[in-house]
Amino acid sequence: MNTPQGFPTPPFPQGPPGRGPQSTPLGAPASTPSWMPQDQPPNKSGRNTALAVLALVVVIGAAAVVFLFTRDDDETSVDSPSPATQQQVDEVLATVPTPTVTVPPVTVTSAVVDPLPPPTALAPANLFTGTRAAEVIAEIGVARGAAPLRILQALFYPEYAFAQVQDPSIPANVDEYQWRGDLSGPAPVTLTGDGDLEANLFSDTEVNWAVIPTLVETALAQIPIEGAEVSHISVQRNLPFSDAVQIRVFVNGTRTSGYLDADAQGTVINVSQG
Predict the structure, then answer these.
(1) Beta strand 202-203 with 150-156: parallel, antiparallel or unpaired?
(2) Is residue 164 a contact partner of residue 269, using CB atoms and an 8 Å limit?
(3) pTM score of the predicted model
(4) Among residues 131, 184, 195, which one has the least CA distance to residue 162?
(5) What is the Cα–Cα distance from 262 to 245, expressed in whole angstroms?
(6) Residue partners of 48: CB distance under 8 A and separation at least 6
(7) What's the CA angle centered on 234, arms 257 and 170, to 5 degrees?
(8) Other CB atoms within 10 Å distance of the CB of residue 172
(9) DSSP structure string for the chain
(10) pLDDT digits (tens, 9 = 90+) for 241-259
(11) Higher pLDDT residue, 229 or 20?
(12) Contact 174, 189 (CB under 8 A)
């Protein structure tokens, strides 16, 4: 027997020692094993079951989807009624009655209003009238902070006044206040001469300031000069002639002048003209 080229000749198996090679008797066919697999026909029943289950799942899913959509439509139809059309709204509004309001006639009567007179300018305060002189002295006393007020001289003009008064905190000093509708001061006064200051001062309570309007009228009556008018009034001690407090009313005219003297209570003591 020829051995294929390139393959070694397999060795014969060796038997146990002392024993020859084993051999199969000729003529004895080789037995066929009983486990040889046989061709089995395919299992058709399992495949059919799987298809049935898949179809059932598809049917159940479709039924669920249909149920959900049907439920939404039902809820919408219950909770959201269809809106009324414009025609329906117009028909309802047409049945609502319109109220009728009757307005009575109004008669307007024109009123005639007289025009207001033009404003009258306020006349400046005349210190020769009423109690104006006394009020000015009282205002100066409050500003000076002195009671009684010690006065060296007081001068009254129709629309303004001056008063030189002692400083109560520094008795050697005299200050001047001015009244021109409003009070101003104090302004220092320079004293001259060798006279005694205390001998020249008098208290505001020594003078009857209310007699000034009467003295003005008396002076104009007793000094009958052309164009007579009172220019000013002075109140002071009549030094060096007398230590009495004197009220002097000065009268000026177009051609001449004069004055009237009275004591502190308003008693006329002298009239001079020319």
Answers:
(1) antiparallel
(2) no
(3) 0.56
(4) 184
(5) 9
(6) none
(7) 155
(8) 9
(9) -PPPTTSPPPPPPP-STT-----PPTT-PPPPPTT---PPPP-HHHHHHHHHHHHHHHHHHHHHHHHHHHHHHHHHHHHSPPPPPHHHHHHHHHTSPPP---PPP--------PPPPPPPPPPPP-TTSTTHHHHHHHHHHHHHT-SSPEEEEEEE-SS-EEEEEE-SSSTT-EEEEEESSSEEEEEE----SS--HHHH-EEGGGS-GGGHHHHHHHHHHHS--TT-EEEEEEEEE-TTT-SSEEEEEEEE-SS-EEEEEEETT--EEEEEE-
(10) 999 999 999 999 999 999 9
(11) 229
(12) yes
Share of residues in the chain with pLDDT > 90 (%) = 53
CA dist., res. 52 & res. 62, Å (int): 16
Rounded CA gap, 88 and 114, in Å? 64
Interatomic CA distance for residues 188 and 257, integer angstroms: 32
Q: Give the model's pLDDT for residue 3.
A: 44
Structure tokens at 257: 């002048």
Per-residue burial over 178-214, b if 16 or more Cβ lie within 10 Å, else e, is ebeeebebbeeeeeeeeeeeeebbbebeebbbebbbe
| DSSP-assigned beta bridge partners for residue 233 | 156, 249
Looking at the chain, the whole-number percentage of residues with pLDDT higher than 70 is 58
Instruction: Locate 251 and state its tokens.
Output: 């009268």
Cα gap 141→165, rounded to integer Å: 9
74 — pLDDT class (breaks 50, 70, 90): very low
The total number of residues shown for the chain amounts to 274
